[in-house]
Amino acid sequence: MNKYAKEFCIRGLIFGALGPLVYGIVMMILGFCNVKIEIQGWQILLAIVSTYLLAFIQAGSSVFEQVEEWSSFKSALIHLLTIYVIYLVTYLVNTWIPLNWIAIVIFTAAIIVTFLLIWLICYLVNRKFKNTLNTLIK
Fold first, then answer.
1. Is the alpha carbon torsion for 16, 5, 61, 10 positive or negative?
2. Degrees to nearest 5, angle at CA 125 with 124 and 131
3. What per-residue string of b and e applies to 28-54 under the rule 16 or more CB within 10 Å gives b?
4. Which of 14, 24, 92, 130 has the fewest CB atoms within 10 Å, i.e. the most exposed one?
5. How far, rounded to the nearest angstrom, does the alpha carbon of residue 88 sit from its chain's CA centroid?
6. N- to C-terminal Cα distance for the chain?
7. SS3 breakdown of the chain: % helix, strand, coil, rounded to 5?
8. What is the pLDDT of residue 65?
9. Angle 22-15-121 (CA atoms, 0-180°, nearest 5)?
């Protein structure tokens, strides 16, 4: 097995259970807030399975940044596309967002902005760390 595929699976298995846990916490908070939700058993099962897969793929896809043969842009783009597709599919399958173009455009914008903000923060932190190390070496 490719070392990246193996690492993808390991990360996914480690963090996959967080998806259903987050789903359970959200449902609990909604219950505390007296939000009435009518949900059937198959919908709960679908949410548990889909959030597990979402967390598995999200955690596993962090390995894309370590593929040495890929440029930073390529790894970031593949990571973004992977995250976008799994979130979009999960949200649509569970009907957490409606299947219409306006909702999908808003969802897409939110994913892209969030991804870019996280990347910007990571870039700035790493640049500062690198500069600090360079001044210590000199």
1. positive
2. 85
3. eeeeeeeeeeeeeeeeeebbeebbbbb
4. 130
5. 11
6. 42
7. 80, 0, 20
8. 85
9. 85
* pLDDT of amino acid 1: 59
pLDDT digit string, tens, across residues 57-94? 999 998 998 888 988 889 999 999 999 999 999 999 99
117 exposed, middle or buried (CB, 10 Å; 0-12, 13-18, 19+)?
Answer: exposed
For residues 47 and 94, the answer to whether their CB atoms sit within 8 Å is yes
* Chain segment 92-130, per-residue pLDDT in tens: 999 999 999 999 999 999 999 999 999 899 889 988 888
Q: What is the mean pLDDT of residues 34-39?
A: 85
Which amino acid is present at 60?
A: G
